[in-house]
């Protein structure tokens, strides 16, 4: 299995779809499904009937998973989407932004 290029807590930019251009933080990564959940992006609404556990009912808004290919890591320098490559620095494997050459972690 390849190393994860996008991890939980990363700032990402949406590259396509209804939320194109918006940025958010990764809440969850699902590598087996190839999906990510980004805070405040791809929000779905669920209408709930009143029940004993939820007597008020109402509308729940939750971020839904989206394809990992639709998001790109935000470049640390300018905040635009960039691809990621891996390099070894001081004997440690680190992620590097292709666009600017900035180290993302490490």
TrEMBL record:
Keyword Flavoprotein: no
Domain KOW: 5-32
Keywords: Ribonucleoprotein, Ribosomal protein, RNA-binding, rRNA-binding
PANTHER family (alphabetical): MITOCHONDRIAL RIBOSOMAL PROTEIN L24
GO cellular component, one term: ribonucleoprotein complex
Oligomeric form and interacting partners: Part of the 50S ribosomal subunit.
NCBIfam families to which the protein is assigned, alphabetical: rplX_bact (TIGR01079)
Function: One of the proteins that surrounds the polypeptide exit tunnel on the outside of the subunit. One of two assembly initiator proteins, it binds directly to the 5'-end of the 23S rRNA, where it nucleates assembly of the 50S subunit.
Signal peptide: none
Keyword Cytoplasm on entry: no
Entry superkingdom: Bacteria
Record-linked InterPro entries: KOW, Rib_uL2_dom2, Ribosomal_uL24, Ribosomal_uL24_C, Ribosomal_uL24_KOW, Translation_prot_SH3-like_sf
Coiled coil: none
GO molecular function list: rRNA binding; structural constituent of ribosome
Gene3D superfamilies in the record: 2.30.30.30
Organism annotation: Novosphingobium fluoreni
Similarity remark: Belongs to the universal ribosomal protein uL24 family.
UniProt-listed GO biological process terms: translation
Protein's name in the database: Large ribosomal subunit protein uL24
């Amino acid at each position: 299995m390849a190393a994860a290029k996008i991890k939980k807590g990363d700032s990402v930019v949406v590259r396509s779809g209804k939320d194109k251009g918006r940025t958010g933080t990764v809440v969850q990564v699902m590598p087996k499904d190839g999906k990510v959940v980004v805070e405040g992006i791809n929000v779905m609404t669920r209408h709930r009937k009143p029940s004993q556990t939820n007597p008020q009912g109402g509308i729940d808004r939750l971020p839904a998973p989206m394809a990992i290919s639709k998001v790109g890591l935000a470049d640390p320098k300018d905040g635009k989407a960039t691809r990621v490559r891996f390099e070894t620095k001081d004997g440690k494997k680190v992620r590097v932004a292709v666009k600017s050459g900035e180290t993302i972690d490490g």
